[in-house]
């Protein structure tokens, strides 16, 4: 009789039901349970009345959140755990509910993974309307601001902009990084470059940050439009190149080289694969996410980024790993 490795079987079970945990978190965020608890609703009765839900079912959800260490429980009282208090209470500086909501929104795309693998095409894009839904766009840009907000301090500390006077934040979305870089470097002026319907929202984030005098927007398409000639001391391409294929990425980086002054730097911020293309795990999974959700996107390795930079004229290329699954790959324009 063969011995059963129960830990291996349990690993497969945990892997198979992993989406249970995601769905519990998604429901809690949609109900805004963590904010309710922060505001004084601590019992199953109080919470179920606040969200107009079944009390027994609400208790099950709350107990599951305790098991996930997102809540604590003493007798009949529920409280937020430290992580929930910091990141899941609406109105807190690093609130991540908007980003979690975005991941909830794209969950259905992952149910199409088999057909996507069979065809090699993003099935989720097949029936999308030509016009971008304003509500969906605001959800996405707000989500990108949420996840960027927890990375701004470490990113700004790792890039040297003390001598830079101009920064281009390419496809910068909410402009979170441009705003943070401008605040950290008083001499810096920044331009957030993105599509016309995006920069309308970007201006709201710039205004809220009170940096309208030093951070502006420019509408454009990074594949179709020029970024200028010898115009910038630094260009940030954060979470952009994973959307495109290698040919288009070389095209974007060539335009970055043209737009930089001599001595300027391009700063790529991405989830970088190792040379086996299997690790880190998040980058490998994210590559599938790009297959499912974009026309030609993927995660790429350091050697690929280096080759594109070298082919487009960049020198002194270096990599800096951040603490949050992502890395910076920086190249300089040296004439």
UniProtKB/TrEMBL annotation:
In the UniProt entry, which residues are flagged as the active site? 242
Q: Does the keyword S-adenosyl-L-methionine apply?
A: yes
Q: Which residues form the signal peptide?
A: none
Example of a GO biological process term: methylation
- Which PROSITE patterns does the record cross-reference, listed alphabetically? SAM_OMT_II
> Which residues belong to any copy of the O-methyltransferase dimerisation domain?
14-89
- Coiled-coil regions listed: none
Which GO MF terms does the UniProt record name?
Answer: O-methyltransferase activity; protein dimerization activity
* Keywords per UniProt: Methyltransferase, S-adenosyl-L-methionine, Transferase
Could you tell me the superkingdom of the organism this chain comes from?
Bacteria
* Gene3D superfamilies hit by this protein: Vaccinia Virus protein VP39, Winged helix-like DNA-binding domain superfamily/Winged helix DNA-binding domain
**Could you tell me which residue ranges the O-methyltransferase C-terminal domain spans?**
133-315
Instruction: Return the protein name.
Output: Methyltransferase
Q: Which organism is it from?
A: Candidatus Jettenia caeni
Its taxonomic path starts at: Bacteria, Pseudomonadati, Planctomycetota, Candidatus Brocadiia, Candidatus Brocadiales
């Amino acid at each position: 009789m063969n011995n059963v490795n129960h830990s291996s079987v349990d690993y497969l079970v945990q892997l198979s039901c992993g989406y249970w945990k995601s769905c519990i978190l998604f429901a809690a965020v949609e109900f805004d349970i963590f904010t309710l608890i922060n505001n004084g609703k601590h019992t199953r009765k109080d919470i179920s009345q606040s969200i107009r839900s079944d009390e027994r079912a609400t208790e099950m959800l709350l107990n599951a959140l305790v098991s996930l260490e997102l809540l604590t429980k003493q007798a009949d009282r529920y409280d937020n755990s430290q992580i929930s208090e910091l990141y899941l209470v609406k109105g807190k500086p690093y609130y991540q509910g908007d980003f979690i909501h975005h991941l909830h929104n794209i969950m259905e795309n992952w149910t199409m993974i088999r057909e996507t693998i069979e065809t090699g095409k993003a099935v989720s894009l097949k029936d999308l309307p030509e016009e971008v839904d304003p509500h969906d766009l605001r959800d996405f840009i707000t989500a990108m601001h949420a996840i960027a907000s927890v990375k701004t301090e470490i990113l700004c500390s790792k890039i040297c902009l003390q001598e830079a006077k101009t920064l281009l934040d390419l496809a910068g979305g909410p402009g979170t990084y441009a705003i943070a870089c401008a605040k950290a470097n008083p001499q810096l002026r920044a331009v957030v470059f993105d599509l016309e319907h995006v920069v309308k929202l970007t201006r709201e984030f710039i205004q809220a940050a009170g940096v309208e005098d030093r951070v502006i927007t420019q509408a454009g398409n990074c594949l179709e439009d020029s970024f200028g000639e010898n115009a910038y001391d630094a260009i940030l391409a954060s979470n952009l190149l994973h959307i495109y294929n290698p040919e288009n990425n070389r095209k974007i980086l060539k335009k970055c080289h043209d737009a930089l002054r001599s001595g300027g730097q391009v700063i790529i911020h991405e989830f970088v694969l190792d040379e086996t293309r299997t690790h880190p795990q998040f980058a490998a999974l994210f590559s599938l996410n790009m297959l499912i959700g974009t026309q030609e996107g993927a995660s790429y390795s350091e050697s690929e980024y280096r080759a594109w930079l070298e082919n487009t004229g960049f020198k002194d290329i270096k990599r800096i790993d951040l603490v949050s699954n992502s890395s910076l790959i920086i190249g300089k324009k040296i004439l």
